[in-house]
Please model this.
Amino acid sequence: MDPELAGLASVAAATVVQLLTTAGWERAQTSMGALWRRVYPDRANTVESELEESRAVLLAARQDASDPAEAEQAEAELVSEWQGRLRRLLAAEPGLAAELRRILADNLGPEPSGRGPDEPSVRVSVRASDSSRVYVAGRDQHLRGG
Model:
């Protein structure tokens, strides 16, 4: 699989799983269902139901875990599961990558913060290829040759 598509699947899976325990989980469910409907319309409702099951698993793990590492393990397993599903979907229909990027940016991004018009908003988007390096910082960054 194209490394860029694999990376996109990874980011999308992590984002969706993180949203499962927030108020935005229904946006994630609806968005993923819509994505699946474009390729496998007969599976979309199942995907939405499975996201609801994943949500229940994660909520239970967080509530029942006496050790925070157990909840983190449950989350990691769900991310891996959904990453695999998204990778298979993108392998079947690579053209969905643009739609998935749009969904991540428009539907699954952070909720508006309610900032005033004079308060700055920052969005950083980075893309590296081949053997390039990318350094991103919110403030000062000091690099030393090595």
